[in-house]
Amino acid sequence: MVLALKAAAFALTGSVALLSDAAESVVNVGTALATWWALRVAARPPDDRHPWGHHKAEVVAAVGVGVLIVLSALLILREAWEAARAPLPLVAPWDGIAVNAAAGAVNGLWCLVLFRAARAARSPALRADARHLLADVASSAGVTAGVALAAVLGRGWIDPALAALVALNILWSGWRVLAESLAGLMDEAVPEDLRARLEAAIAEAGAGAVQAHDLRTRHAGAAAFMEFHLVVPGDWTVARAHALCDRIEAALRAEAPELRVTIHVEPEHKAKAPEDAIVI
Ligand code: ZN
Ligand code: ZN
User: Fold this and answer.
1) Which domain holds residue 265?
2) Which of 92, 175, 263, 274 is most buried, judging by how many CB atoms fall within 10 Å of its CB?
3) Ligand nearest to the CA of 249
4) Tens digit of each residue's pLDDT (9 = 90 or more) over 207-257
5) How far is the centre of ligand 1, averaged over its atoms, from the C-alpha of 248 (Å)?
6) Does 23 lie in the same domain as 65?
7) C-beta pairs of 179-182 under 8 Å, 24+ apart in sequence
8) Based on the domain organization, do 245 and 159 belong to the same domain?
9) What is the whole-number distance in angstroms between the Cα of residue 236 and the centre of ligand 1?
């Protein structure tokens, strides 16, 4: 609906700034579809072909969205350039402005809903979506004000200049989405503060063991993975070491419910220097 309103605003006025606004809405529709697909795929349980789960579908969608945003920005820049070289007077600007303002209001509300949902679900795809929509709402407000100015002053360059500004803003938000989602593809570790809490949980729940070392974490979408070596006295039975592992895993999951943990058990002589280990 927002897209239809903005397209109508452009058709009414012939303003490239309003066209840039409408192009953003096309991106929004694509983004919404990609996000919807990603959330569905990410929720699937692990299967034979994807034994770690499907969480990275969200990252893939976020990369796709980033590319889409950057492309739309480049298209708008080209339109603005054309309009600046051959400016046409605006037709019925006030009708277009009113229609665009209505579209902006709808978007603003939707944006709030998305940010809430993204925080609740800790979903990178939803967050990318919400952040992009926020940029859209802001630029839409600017464009509407700017086209009003152009309508009053009647200057041919205000409209394409605005479109170019919108495009640069879109380009920036697209870049941020891309940079963030690429980090997700690179198996980035969990944030420092979470890691500190996880280490504390190991030290506390691991009473009886000697130390933990070679701790590695990575995250994929809303899920996180962790593995480490747990050094226990060599004369422990397998059953005893396993029971301790289960206690540690439960403590870690209490800190981070989406965490999948793998523990490799070792006897004392595999212990590392205390500065390279979590001493228990
Ligand atoms: Zn080891
Ligand atoms: Zn087990």
Assistant:
1) 192-279
2) 263
3) 2
4) 999 999 999 999 887 789 999 999 999 999 999 999 999 999 999 999 999
5) 17
6) yes
7) 180/62, 180/124, 180/128, 181/59, 181/62, 181/63, 181/65, 181/66, 181/124, 181/128, 182/63
8) no
9) 17
